[in-house]
């Protein structure tokens, strides 16, 4: 039964820093200092960058979901992985125990990406590192009245997205024509947020309007079980596109420092020692 009606809990607009080259522009969709509110999500960055910004670097203890808005993203990892992602493609990474990779713009591209950091519970922080590319054409499309959904992860509107996250999440791109109405159904116990890619949409019974670069967290029933469903009413004021992400809170102590996300500062220090001692392997290079 679908009972819980979601509303916007808080909303804001991304403030961008003009960094120059190679990291042209950066803004926090989910600011890291507010990570306790976003559990299981830690942060989300909206970046424009050229080659040389995110060269070889390590990670441990969390997952990333990188959505390419525009340009070409070259992925290289030290396990021999190499791929190029285009607009609409997504890369999922489980950093697990020891990831070492590079995320670069191709040639002279200025690439525009969204990168979400998704926490891992303590029991999964030492899992094997893995990467998965979800191509635009591999994410199933659901046609709704005057619009469509593209489902990257989780079960939404009767289809299942191809992303193999280690923790239960949903990721949906919603495109609506002007005047369209749509009700998005999510697991009731998922913490969720919206990011506007373009246009204007009204959300919930209160009809709070968001436009491009608007972010909103949503109410949810954290005491519900996974079978409970919730509804979010959406109305497009103009031709619009938004991303909605949701996930089950982990409710553990989180320490995020540099490229690592662990449960204590001692575990962070150990991650730095392990990297310096070569336990993450050699550099990511072709």
From TrEMBL:
Pinpoint the Pirin C-terminal domain residues.
Answer: 172-281
Q: Which cofactor does it need?
A: Fe cation
Carries keyword Metal-binding? Answer: yes
Q: In which residues is Fe cation bound? A: 57, 59, 101, 103
Q: Which UniProt keywords apply?
A: Iron, Metal-binding
Report the co-factor binding details.
Binds 1 Fe cation per subunit.
Report the Pfam families cross-referenced here. Answer: Pirin, Pirin_C
Q: Which GO terms describe its molecular function?
A: metal ion binding
Question: Which family does the UniProt entry place this protein in?
Answer: Belongs to the pirin family.
Query: What is the protein name for this chain?
Result: Pirin family protein
- Specify the taxonomic lineage: Bacteria, Bacillati, Bacillota, Bacilli, Bacillales
């Amino acid at each position: 039964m679908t009972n819980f009606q979601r509303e916007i809990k808080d909303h804001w607009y991304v403030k961008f820093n003009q960094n120059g080259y190679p990291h042209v522009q950066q803004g926090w969709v989910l600011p890291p200092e507010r990570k306790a509110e976003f559990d299981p999500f830690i942060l989300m960055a909206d970046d424009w960058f050229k080659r040389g910004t995110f060269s070889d670097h390590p990670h441990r203890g969390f997952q990333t979901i990188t959505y390419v808005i525009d340009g070409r993203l070259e992925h290289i990892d030290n396990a021999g992985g190499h791929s190029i992602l285009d607009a609409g493609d997504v890369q999922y990474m489980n950093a697990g125990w020891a990831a070492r990779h590079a995320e670069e713009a191709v040639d002279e591209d200025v690439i525009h990406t969204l990168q979400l950091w998704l926490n891992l519970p303590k029991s999964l922080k030492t899992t094997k590192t893995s990467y998965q590319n979800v191509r635009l054409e591999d994410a199933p499309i659901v046609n709704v009245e005057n619009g469509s959904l593209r489902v990257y992860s989780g079960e939404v509107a009767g289809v299942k997205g191809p992303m193999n996250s280690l923790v239960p999440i949903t990721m949906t791109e919603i495109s609506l024509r002007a005047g369209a109405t749509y009700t998005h159904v999510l697991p009731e116990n998922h913490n969720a947020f919206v990011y506007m890619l373009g246009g204007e949409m009204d959300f919930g019974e209160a009809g709070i309007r968001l436009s491009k670069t608007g972010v909103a967290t949503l109410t949810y029933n954290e005491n519900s079980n996974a079978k409970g469903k919730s509804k979010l009413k959406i109305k497009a004021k103009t031709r619009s596109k938004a991303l909605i992400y949701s996930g089950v809170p982990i409710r553990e102590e989180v320490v995020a420092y540099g490229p690592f996300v662990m449960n204590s500062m001692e575990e962070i220090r150990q991650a730095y020692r392990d990297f310096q001692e070569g336990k993450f392997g050699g550099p990511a290079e072709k």
